[in-house]
Amino acid sequence: MFHNFNLAMKCVFLILAALGLSVADEGSTYDHFRLPTALRPRRYDVRLLTQLENPDDFRFSGTVKIQIEVLQNTHNITVHSKDLTIDDTEITLSQIGGESTTENCITSTAVNPTHDFYILNTCKELLAGQVYELSLPFSAKLQDQLAGYYRSSYVDTVANETRWISVTQFEPASARLAFPCFDEPGYKASFAITLGYHKKYTGLSNMPVKETRPHESIPDYVWTAFEESLPMSTYLVAYSLNDFSHKPSTLPNGTLFRTWARSNAIDQCDYAAEFGPKVLNYYEELFGIKFPLSKVDQIAVPDFIAGAMENWGLVTFAENALLYSPEYSALEAKQVTANIVAHELAHQWFGNLVTMKWWTDLWLNEGFATYVASLCVEDIHPEWRTLQLVSMSNLLTMFRKDSLESSHPISRPIEMTSQISESFDEISYQKGSSVIRMMHLFLGEEAFRTGLKSYLEKYTYKNAEQDNLWESLTQAAHKIGSLPKDYDIKTIMDSWTLQTGYPVIYVTRDYTSRTAKLSQERYLLNSDVSRAHKGCWWVPLSYTSQEEKDFNNTVPKEWMECTETGESVPKTIEDLPGPDQWVIFNNQLSAPYKVNYDAQNWKLLIETLNSEDYQSIHVVNRAQLIDDVLFFAWTGEQDYEIALQVISYLQRERELLPWKSAFDNLKFVNGILQQSSVFHPQSFKRRLITPIYEHLNGINDTVASEQQQEKTILNAMVADWACLFEVSDCVAQALNYYRSWRSEANPDEVNPVPLGFRDVVYCTAIKHGSVEDWDFLWTRYQKANVATEKHIILDSLGCSQEVWVQQRYLERNFDGMGAIRKQDSTSVFQAIATSEVGFLLAKKYLMDNVDSISKFYHPQSESMSELLPPLCEQIFTRRDYDEFMNFLDSSKEQLKDIEQTISQSLETMLINVQWMERNYERFTRAIKKHV
Predict the structure, then answer these.
(1) Which residues form the catalytic set?
(2) Is 256 within 8 Å of 235 (Cβ atoms)?
(3) Which of 31, 35, 10 is nearest to 22 (CA)?
(4) Is the peptide bond before 859 cis (omega within 30 degrees of 0)?
(5) pLDDT single digits (tens) 655-707
(6) pLDDT for 323-368, tens place per residue?
(7) Can you list the GO cellular component terms from the UniProt entry (predicted)?
(8) At CB < 8 A and 24+ separation, what contacts does 554-562 make?
């Protein structure tokens, strides 16, 4: 909710907030988005009765007792409450502690709907130093809105009936939908949860069960009380009622570890149950701190929009994030599960044990969990060799997103609750992870670990901000000697976390004096914007030469520095090789920046890449050169002639990362060309892809092995593009597999399509097939029991070339009838929008139905943000740009909580328009030379 409240009042609040003063006594006139600071909760006692038996009347009711410590005298109590009914005649307030309990009372209550405040005015003043107990009764409908405390369902296929469960999702600010509370991360307290429910269910919460006893008045109901929790933030509280089965794991250190799913999917829990305990052990070693709880439950929830959530001791997952079936899921799905489990369990320390003070530092949670998860998976599954791939993927994502002027700093001020959700994006996760990796590489292992451990120990059960972490790491680095005494982490890292964007480093060599001059500026894709004075970064410079080829040394040889006023200090590098040898900066992409060289250095690099000696350049740096040169060609800083000379070496390339880099970039050019009927460079692409497609033996099922994960992923990626451009026998092979599947007597049990190629085969068959092919696959979707398989089918159904089939699919996607779960509807829309035929339909559908779509997602309005990018990435004419801009302008009310996505979408379209006007001719000329 966006209210521009009285500016003068706002200034007063900001001044008071800056002075650390409370404005609680303003009563209901208090209108700042943060809670007043006069009170602090110490303990919550939450008793909650849930009725799940009657589908016509799902509801919950309960009482919360909050022990509140008074820090400054005040006449009122402000808590968060949203969509809850509170009977204010039943509220009690008493002073506790000391000899006796003294009754206080409530004179009146008020509501501030803008900030979800429930304000209680007290009979007597609450006095600093005293502790009070506030008891609030509450009740609400148990909705299906995927936030707060909500219901989810699945079909028991044996009994052929719908089964209901309840579960919570409180991050970032939805605990207030479940019970009145101080719903900000800085207010840590302990929680004693008691759940009342029908005895046929299992009750789970953050802590182990203390006792279960029969309900005093409702037959067949029980009360289950859970042990009191450690101090934690409200967004980490969790509970669920379900009739699931579980798979126990044994842990050497005594932590009880269980993995839960609906009974007809419990066999898909094996991998997560085996992997999870190994992850806990890894982090206990990495952080040098034992896991503080006595149990961990992981649970797969049928309706779950967040992917996964790190609630302390009760980690919740969407089914396709936790469950893995060797019969139905590709190996890549196993990697995804491993990464997500490792990410959520990293939070048990980074986020749960030590929590950010405010959402400004959300990235400390998410960037860190993303990065250490990649270390964890590499440690447990070294045979997968995923660390390079994950680091590279994070960088490629971040380079794209953060080259928009409308991007934002990693650490960003949050001025209202609706902005918090927008921070859960590629900048917090992928860029956050990339800058932590950079820091790990320049600090070295020992300083990194020592600094982390001392930070976690110092702020255990407390809240911290990024400066606290920088301090611990600087101390460790100076003590160990891995950072010069006159450098500190704060100065270096602030340049990466407090300003938007990343630099491009220009390397201009003087071949006679064997030196190079380096300069930096912010890299932007939008060429209408001046880059001058757009920031300065402290850049660790690693580099190597054609003779030395020391790519494994990622420790910086030099630094690019900034003055105190944020100007870049010019840098000269000495002792470089002569004019017949290239140099490459940023060994293994150890820091997130791009590098543009002078013409001679590019010429030398192109010669090596297009020779038998191309592997003398490290595989990550080959991927870097492709990504950099295609970006520079896009913005006109390099000629497409040069870019195509770089990528034409790919005919020799057999490794995954350079191909991933190329495909990620070509996807954007292809998106534009797919919609423009003028010129399709098919023959160039076929020439590029055919050698690797044939080298990998096409989509003939070579048995995928865990030892060759990279090859398996490359295989699927190449096949995807090969079938798109009808290379070699790709389409014919795909159609053969699909036909033989259709002719199976029992297609739900027997599927001859190779696991690693199912998405390619299904999509190709739907694209080149009939309505019967589509309907066959839709039936398989309805009958499938494995979430990853269902997901692949939904995406593939969007590949049809039939306009009416795509239209029918769009309508089915948003009809709310439950065939497609709400959490999957955005990826269905994306699948349709990125197909040649579906683009115009999806665009028109969104424009015509924006009102009903926005109601469909309410209150998860952030889901709307996922519908815009696939459309904007394919708009490239001024006319379409203006049309879409008008649509966004006239739909402000329906799109009100996704301002960030809107500005990024507009900028993306503008960048495409610029490309079309500046590069289309150059691009086609260059391509024709290479065919």
Answers:
(1) 344
(2) no
(3) 35
(4) yes
(5) 999 999 999 998 888 877 776 665 566 778 888 899 999 999 998 866 556 56
(6) 999 999 988 999 999 999 999 999 999 999 999 999 999 999 999 9
(7) cytoplasm; extracellular space; plasma membrane; side of membrane
(8) 554/441, 554/442, 554/587, 554/588, 554/590, 555/441, 555/442, 555/444, 556/442, 559/487, 560/505, 560/518, 560/520, 562/495, 562/536, 562/537, 562/538
Q: Please tell me the distance from the alpha carbon of residue 418 to that of residue 414, in angstroms, as a whole number.
A: 9
| Strand 209-214 with 202-205, pairing | unpaired
Separation of CA 156 from chain center? 31
Q: Which of 460, 439, 456 is nearest to 448 (CA)?
A: 439
Residue 272 backbone dihedrals phi, psi, to 5 degrees: -65, -35
C-beta separation of 303 from 821 below 8 A: yes
Residues 15-39: what's their mean pLDDT?
Answer: 60
306 contacts 163 by C-beta, under 8 angstroms:
no
In the chain, count of helices (H) and strands (E)? Answer: 28, 30
To 5 degrees, how large is the angle CA 369–CA 345–CA 385?
A: 65
Strands (E), 593-685: 594-597
Q: How far apart are CA 254 and CA 461, in angstroms?
A: 22
Strands 161-169 and 239-242: antiparallel
Burial class (CB in 10 A: 0-12, 13-18, 19+), 893: exposed
Burial of 636 (0-12, 13-18, 19+ CB in 10 A): middle
* 680 among annotated binding-site residues: no
pLDDT score at 123: 93
Place of tokens 């991933």: 660
Q: Is the pLDDT of residue 878 over 90?
A: yes
How far is residue 106 from each of residues 22, 27, 62, measured CA to CA in Å?
20, 13, 19
**Domains of the chain (ranges plus CATH)?**
1-152+160-243 (2.60.40.1730), 355-497 (1.10.390.10), 503-616 (2.60.40.1910)
The C-alpha atoms of residue 240 and residue 831 are separated, in whole angstroms, by 33
For residue 17, pLDDT over 70 is answered with: no
Exposure string (b/e) for 82-112, b if CB count within 10 Å is 16 or more?
bebebeeeebebebeeeeeeeebebeebeeb
Q: What local confidence, expressed as pLDDT, does residue 504 receive?
A: 96
What whole-number distance in Å separates Cα of residue 780 and Cα of residue 785?
10
- For residue 830, give the nearest of 849, 809, 808, 857 by alpha carbon: 809
Q: How far apart are CA 659 and CA 715, in angstroms?
A: 11
Per-residue model confidence (pLDDT) at position 26: 41
Query: Terminus-to-terminus CA distance in the chain, angstroms?
Result: 55
207, 246 Cβ separation under 8 angstroms: no
Q: At what angle do helices 730-742 and 709-724 cross, to 10 degrees?
A: 100
The span from the CA of 629 to the CA of 647, in Å, is 9
Q: What is the CA radius of gyration of the chain?
A: 29
Looking from the CA of 118 toward its CB, the CA atoms found within 13 Å total 23
**Mean pLDDT across 856-861:** 85
189: amino acid identity, one letter:
A
Residues with Cβ within 8 Å of 297's Cβ and at least 6 positions away in sequence, in order, are: 204, 246, 258, 259, 260, 313, 314, 315
How far apart (Å, rounded) are the C-alpha atoms in residues 585 and 597? 10
Write out the two tokens for 236: 């980490």
| Residue 366 annotated as binding site | yes
DSSP per residue, 113-157: TTTTEEEEEEEEEE-TT-EEEEEEEEEEE---SSSEEEEEEEEET
- pTM given for the model: 0.93
CA 53 vs CA 50, 85, 302, 577, 920: distances in Å: 9, 21, 18, 77, 62
Residues facing residue 155 across a β-bridge: 162
* Whether 797 contacts 292, CB under 8 Å: no
Average pLDDT estimate for 320-324: 96
Most distant CA atoms of the chain, gap in Å = 92
Report whether pLDDT(261) > 60.
yes
> In this structure, what token pair is assigned to residue 598?
């002078």
As a whole-number percent, the residues of the chain with pLDDT over 90 amount to 82
Length of the chain: 931
3-state secondary structure of 257: strand
